[in-house]
Amino acid sequence: MLALNKIKKDILILGIESSCDETSAAVLHSGRMLSNIIATQEVHRQYGGVVPELASRAHQQNIVPTVDTALKQAGITPQELTAVAVTAGPGLQGSLLVGLSFAKSMSMALNIPLIGVHHMQAHILANFIDDASGRAPRFPFLALTISGGHTQIVLVRDYFDMQVLGQTLDDAVGEAFDKTAQIIGLPYPGGPEIDRLAHQGNPTAFRFPKPKVEGLNFSFSGLKTSILYFLQKKQKENPEFIRQNLADIAASVQHTIIEILTDKIGQAVAQTGVRRLVVGGGVSANRGLRERLEELARTGGWELHIPRFEYTGDNAAMIAITGYLKYQRGLFDDLRLTPKPRWDM
Length: 345
Ligand code: KG4
Ligand code: ZN
Hints:
With 345 residues, the chain is of the alpha/beta class. The protein has eleven helices and ten strands.
């Protein structure tokens, strides 16, 4: 009986993420991270964005060594795994298929449960990794999920009881960063580049219009267009304008994006009365946004949770924690699981 209890406590989950351009594998021991290996695909840089066909090929090359390294770093053998969790969607069809096929074979070969994970739920639940610190958010909370493909405000009542209150009607916030970066000649992905430059610039040097969108939805495509027209006009007057004002442009664009996001968050807090905010997704790495949210939390009396830097972008530790939480609730899948490129939360 004692031995059985011990086995049940030692839950080892392998997480696999391959929805976009990161191949990642992680091992969690009862919610605690043992390894989190991320292979970033450099091949897309020269194209200024992710090329789906190249992404799936790179996933095929990376998946075996990435999983192998994650297991080795965790100090375990595949036979010790309790279950395998994998991103089933949303994401690129071909990329999802690579991770999913691999996870299915592991589940079959090792005779362990297969758990399909929703990528955006995982960005939120990343805040529960290493829960032992006692810093995990309590329910209910509001989640702001901001990535290259999504921008959402979600009311989270429980681990798997999530309601989208608002989302982008066009571009995601990550795209707004990446497309602006492209316009001013910065390499892909542009978000981190804008973040770095913004630190040296004046955030109120230039004013860009904020879109008027009803309720808690967002729109970012108009911002991109107004930045483009503004810079085209300025470049006509002075062909060196962008080069001479790079940091101020980056800071002003970032400032506008941060205001759009925080205006809506303020609205969501007022509307729901929920004063606990969790942030997730690649854009939550943005230093300017983190600082502004911390300031708002201080002045507004909100409780704020932002994942550690390594869990902001795409990673398999967030897939493994979601798998762990599903495992505890008996939420399993089987070999009929297929990729869901579009999948509502
Ligand atoms: O979550 P993620 O890694 O992948 C998706 O699920 O899309 O998010 C990637 C996005 C990219 O658009 C990237 O430019 C943006 O996150 N990003 C940032 C920063 N780091 C990554 N945007 C602004 N500031 C950053 N520091
Ligand atoms: Zn993501």
